[in-house]
Amino acid sequence: MIIDDIITLPPNWADGVSLERSWKTSIQTSVVGLEIRSALFTWARRRLQFTINSLTAAESNFLRRVLWKNIHNVLGIPFWMDRTPLTVQADSGQAVLQVADTTNRNFEVGAPCVVMTSYDTYEYGEILSFTDTSITLTANLTSTWATGSVYPVLQSRFEWQQQLGGITSAIANLSVNADEAFDADVTKVFIGADPFITHLSRPVFTLEPNWRETVDQTIGRPYDIWKFLGKEAVDTSREESTIGTKALFTFYNRTDLYEFIKFFDYVRGRWGRFYCPTWMRDVVVTSAVGSADTVLDVEAIDWANYWDIGYDIGPAGANLFLWAPDGTKVAREIVDEPTTTTLELGKAVGIDVTAEGLYALLCSFLPLSRFATDSIEIKYEAENVAEVQVTFVTIPGVSSYSSSSSSSRSSSSSSSSLSSSSSSLSSSSSSSSLSSSSSSSWSSFSSSSSSSSKSSSSSSSSLSSSSSSSLSSSSSSSSQSSSSSSYSVGPQWNSIWDNTDFQIYPAVPRGSWQTDHWEGDVGSPYYLTISPVGGWEVGYRPSKMRITFSNYAGPIGIWLYDTSNFFIVNDDTISNLDELTIDFATKNLDIKFILFRIGMQDAHIDNIEWFI
């Protein structure tokens, strides 16, 4: 605890109280829109904003003396929305406060809290530990508190100059903008997005916006246009348009609000990727749905020509979010459009909807997304009522062609391709190309080119380096090739799974190897934990994995961790041979261990395959 003084005058709730949570992300964007994002904060910074109305000379003088002496120091500001009452008298000489509830509030070990009955009757101390209904301080109380409320306290700094608005000689107001001060002794708790469903190993943001205000959707794609005496040529390096969704979320209880806050912290602002529905009725289902169905009857949307552009984990129209009338929410991948009025899913839809209930079935596209900003402002209208305005943006998909040695994709009158080691771009009224050599990836594209030059004129512009190959296409044709005239074998499935490649994870030993398969241990549910042996995992970067299991119908859960204990696969609805995308892009660390959750003790893990 580092505070020098505390301001205990309450806010004017007519204006509300705002809590801002901020992360910090560095984003590098390639010419084709692919991103490298780096998380620069390890915990969210906070800011409290509200208005104090001092209604007596005593209150105004309290404000003036605290600011005059300590405006340059660390000031404590109660989290006014996090009040919890004492349930038992707290006696002088004891260190424990018995309270109604500390959950979903800003209490932290090492930070201060304050017990008070009025602005001038209070006592604050440092938190040693706390449970759901008690707080233990590092020092004993000096007063007895028969009643009172306990608040967590933000250790904050003010700007060097503050203005009190004098309404009369006794009454004043102050606009508080309190930024969190750094205290290395405060324990920050990092909590995952547990309540949310997952899709392709990523969480799905399933909280519904408040339709009291419009849900604004923007669609865009940057492009260049050249004109000369009536002729014109258009060029874009983006393979798909981006979709932005701006929506208001209203919360009427702490549980729902903190689901949102935990999700925002889990993805660390703009840094993390997740799936987010458009919340629009993008697909209209026309016939009753059974849980075992893999094909939906829909109104024609010409999906194959407009939305299916050959990506592995995108684009915007590659996945569906379905919200059934009974409240069930599922995410499914679209794999085909057998006819103009049907869509085929990658697995059974998993919900039942009668023909009469179709009007209440929401079926939205589910694009890979991120938050558009690193900060959110939570506006509290009361202690348990808050609103947040949020904008999501889609992340460009990863082309299915990018996994081969060298490749290109074009969809306009100009041609384009992307390289890890070299590239060239030329554009004029007739053509533009971005050419590449082997091992296409954005991370190396952004940093590995040894040299480049750019020149422009009315007829052409180019960005080039030592490319070994190029590929072009026109409005009448498109092509895919490797870096030489000979055919290169692309990624394929490789089996690495038995007790020569894995061992029971020593740190959390669960399950066993049984002759020719792995089994979970006894429990409910049953778990198996295995970690690599022999060093094969060092530098091993497959893009996908799949599991073969037997003696159990499924589904099973799989959590694949890297060496920082970050989920690179996270899915608890796995069927046999489901293909799971592995997220090495976020941290690029080696595999540490796999946790399986299986339904019965003698379920067999018969194979683990990796796509590389």
Describe this structure in words.
6% of the residues lie in helices and 38% in strands. With 612 residues, it is mainly beta. The strands form eight sheets. The chain has an 18-stranded mixed sheet that branches. Strands 34, 36, 37, 39, 42 and 44 form a six-stranded antiparallel sheet that branches. The protein has a five-stranded antiparallel sheet with strand order 22-25-24-23-26, with no helix packed on it. The longest helix is centred in the N-terminal third of the chain and has 14 residues, at 57-70.
**Uncertain regions: pLDDT < 50 for 5+ in a row?**
398-489
Cα radius of gyration in angstroms: 29 Å
3D shape: globular
Largest sheet: 18 strands, mixed
Summarize the structure.
This protein is 6% helix and 38% strand. It is globular, with a radius of gyration of 29 Å.
Which features characterize this protein?
612 residues; 6-stranded antiparallel beta sheet; 18-stranded mixed beta sheet; 38% strand; mainly beta
Topology:
Elements: E1 5-6, E2 17-22, E3 25-29, E4 35-39, E5 45-54, H1 57-70, E6 75-78, E7 84-85, E8 96-98, E9 112-118, E10 121-130, E11 134-137, E12 149-157, E13 164-166, E14 172-180, E15 198-199, E16 202-203, E17 216-220, E18 224-228, E19 231-235, E20 242-251, H2 254-267, E21 274-275, E22 295-297, H3 303-306, E23 319-323, E24 329-336, E25 342-345, E26 362-365, E27 368-371, E28 375-382, E29 385-394, E30 424-427, E31 432-435, H4 442-447, E32 453-456, E33 461-464, E34 493-495, E35 502-504, E36 512-514, E37 517-519, E38 526-532, E39 544-550, E40 556-562, E41 567-574, E42 580-581, E43 591-598, E44 604-611
Parallel strand pairs: 1-6
Antiparallel strand pairs: 2-5, 2-28, 3-4, 5-14, 6-12, 7-12, 8-11, 9-10, 9-12, 10-11, 12-14, 13-14, 15-16, 17-20, 18-19, 20-29, 21-27, 22-25, 23-24, 23-26, 24-25, 27-29, 28-29, 30-31, 30-33, 32-33, 34-44, 35-38, 36-37, 37-44, 38-43, 39-42, 39-44, 40-41, 40-43
